[in-house]
Amino acid sequence: MAAADSSIKYFRILEMYLRLLDGEVLTRAGEAERYGIDIRSVQRDINGLRLFLESQQLEGFSQTVEYDRKARGYVLRGNKKDLTREEALALCKILLESRAFTKEEMGSIVDKIIRSAVPRRDIVPVQQLVNNEKQYYEELQHHDGALLEKIWAIGDAVSARQMLLIRYGKRDGSVVERTVKPLSIMFSEYYFYLIAEMADPAEAGLTKETYRFPTVYRLDRIQSFAPCGPFHVDYSRRFQSGEVRRRVLYMFGGPLEHVVFEYVTADSVDHVLDRLPTARIEKEEALADGRTKYTISAEVYGLAGIRLWMRSQGPQLRVLAPEALARQMKAELEAALRLYQ
Fold first, then answer.
1. Cis peptide before 277 (omega within 30 of 0)
2. Nearest 5 degrees, angle CA 338-CA 340-CA 341?
3. Residue 105 Ramachandran class (φ > 0 left, ψ -120 to 50 alpha, else beta)
4. Cα–Cα nearest to 248, from 219, 278, 280
5. What are phi and psi of 79, to 5 degrees?
6. What is the CB neighbour count within 10 angstroms for residue 184?
7. Residue from 323, 318, 206 nearest 257 by CA
8. 301 in the Ramachandran plot: left (φ > 0), alpha (ψ -120 to 50) or beta?
9. 218 phi/psi in degrees, rounded to 5
10. What tens digit of pLDDT does each residue of 302-333 get?
C-alpha cells in the first residue's frame, strides 16, 4: 500500500511540473481539490519539486518554483521549454521554406519541434498553421535520405579538427578525391555546404597562385568521407565562418574582392544592404525623374556569386569596379540581348 501511495505521489508531482512548464499557476487549494488531498500534502509536493530542481542546476539551465504574489500562486521561474509557440511556429515556417531535407525528415523535425517546444494547449493550433505546407512540401531532387547523419558526422570532424578524405561528385558528373581540413558547415539557398581548406592543393592540380581559399563543397555531393588524421589550427589566422557568411553569395568561393556599383531606384535599397552585409552607401544623388542613384561598395569572396546577383537586378545596376567585372557583365548582357534579336 505504501508503494502504491508513493507512486501516486510521484505521478502527482510530475503532473504538477508539466503544468508549470506549460505556464500554469498552481495554488495549494486548487491542487488539494484536484487530487483530493490536504493542503499540507500539496506543500510537501511543492517542496519536494523545489529540492529536485535545485539538485539539477546546470550551467545555462536553472529552474525554481516560486510563489508569485501577483498571480496568487506558484509559478516556474527560469528556463522552461526552449521555444515559445510564436518562436516554434516561425522556426517551422522557415524550415519548410528552406526545403533542406526529405519530406519524411522535414515532417519528423517539424512535429518534434511542435511537440517538444509548444505548450500542450497550443499544440493543435500550431499544427493547423503548418499542416498545409507539410502536406504540399516538395523536397529537392538530390536528397538521398542520409543528410542529417552526414551533417552530424562531418560536423563532428570539424569539432575534432580531423582531416577528411572525401569522394566528391562535381557538377559535370566527374568524381574526385580530396583531402581537406573541414572548418565549418553552412546553409544557403536550399543546400548545406562544407567550408574547408585543401590539405594539399597540388592534389587538385593547383598551385599557391591558383588555389582559392575557402573551398566550398555541397554536402549532398559528398559521396563518402573518412577521417585521415588531425590538423593544426593557427589561431592567429583561424577561420571565422561569420566573416565568410557576410562576404559570400550563393556559396561561391574565391579571393577577397572589393566591388563598387551604382544602383538607381525610386524605392529603398534596404534589400541590397540585406543581400550584401558588407555593403556601404558611399554616395546618394537625387535624379530629375524622382529616383535616387546610390553608389555602393562591398567586399565579397570571388566574383561569380555577386555577378549572378547583379544580373538579376537588370537596368537598375551598373558596375564601376573592378573593371574586369564590369567588362564581363557587359559581355553577358549583350549576349543575352542577342537571344531576343
1. no
2. 65
3. alpha
4. 278
5. -70, 125
6. 17
7. 323
8. beta
9. -75, 130
10. 898 999 999 999 999 999 999 999 999 999 99
